[in-house]
Write a structure and sequence with these properties.
Blueprint: H1 3-16, H2 19-22, H3 30-51, H4 61-89, H5 92-98, H6 101-112, H7 119-136, H8 143-161, H9 167-195, H10 205-233, H11 235-239, H12 244-255, H13 263-280
Length: 302
């Protein structure tokens, strides 16, 4: 199997597994916990970059602006929107809205790069979005929950689209590390404003394990795999794998005995896989754009 296809599928599947640890860290301060998660992930990623022999690079102000926008929207605001949507309407509504990510990237991704959307990929995105929605379940919602969920959808698009110009310049490892590093202080400031001195506390053993899982698996590994695959597959085809998020959640919940998948869950997972296969039958992706004038590509500096 193509390594980039496998990487994108694994990345989104791993993101879906975060549902398995949500109950474990439910009692920990939300924004402080997210700040710890991203700070730990940044430390791990920067250590890996150093061990890989990646040297220092100088970014122009516009590239730092892109990184800041990526971190603020794709990480910080995304988490805020999901948290507030869940508080307002429960987890089903944001899950359903985020099920439209494949379709949105199939439409917006090519347009952002000056191309027409592929009819096959758009059709596949519809199938994947339908499957993700079915797997997420149809819960009751309200206007506040819908607006927060739409905000999360927009931020999820930014997570991929804002990274595309940066990946040929600094590579997936640095994009993952620096976006996570920038997210931590953003979240600390928000947490200080909302939670004050209750922003951070010593976690229990179970909470520490949950935060470590989020940092190492859901952030460090999943981010790197996603950003390594994204420029090779293109935003439209890579976006199909966002449908793996509810599949990962269902599989993990079943494996840990948290919940038994329903017929709707299994049907939704089958639709997701069908849509992904349909989308990947489109013409082979173009090679990733070569680095221009800023720094060598990550592969050439190893």
């Amino acid at each position: 199997m193509n390594t980039h296809v496998a990487g994108a599928a694994a990345a989104m599947f791993l993101v879906g597994t975060l549902a398995a640890v949500s109950d474990v860290i439910a009692g920990y301060p939300v924004y402080g916990g997210q700040a710890v998660r991203y700070a730990l992930a940044a430390v791990v990623l920067l250590a890996v970059a150093r061990a890989s022999g990646l040297g220092r690079v100088r970014l122009r102000p516009r590239h730092w602006g892109l990184l800041g926008a990526l971190s603020l929207t794709g990480l910080v605001l995304f988490n805020i929107c999901v948290i507030e949507a869940t508080r307002a309407a429960g987890p089903a509504l944001p899950g359903i809205v985020l099920g439209a990510v494949p379709l949105a990237l199939a439409l917006v991704g090519p347009v952002a790069s000056g191309r027409r959307p592929s009819p096959r990929v758009v059709a596949a995105g519809l199938v994947v979005a339908a499957g993700a929605t079915l797997a997420a379940g149809a819960g009751s919602g309200n206007l506040a929950g819908l607006l927060w969920s739409l905000g999360a959808l927009a931020c999820e698009l930014c997570f991929s689209l804002l990274a595309l110009p940066l990946l040929p310049l600094i590579g997936p490892l640095r994009v993952s590390a620096w976006s996570a590093a920038l997210a931590a202080p953003f979240l600390l400031v928000i947490g200080l404003a909302l939670d004050g001195r209750h922003l951070l506390r010593a976690p229990t053993a179970a909470e520490a394990a949950g935060l470590a899982y989020l940092a190492v698996v859901v952030t460090t590994v999943a981010f790197f795999l996603w950003y390594r695959s994204l420029p090779r597959l293109g935003a439209d085809r890579a976006g199909l794998f966002a449908g793996m998020i509810p599949v990962g959640a269902i599989s993990t919940a079943a494996l840990l005995g948290i919940a038994v998948p329903s017929a709707a869950d299994l049907a939704g997972a089958a639709l997701v896989i069908t849509g992904i296969v349909l989308g990947l039958r489109s013409p082979s992706p173009r090679p990733a754009p070569r680095a221009t004038s800023l720094v060598p590509s990550e592969e050439s500096t190893r």
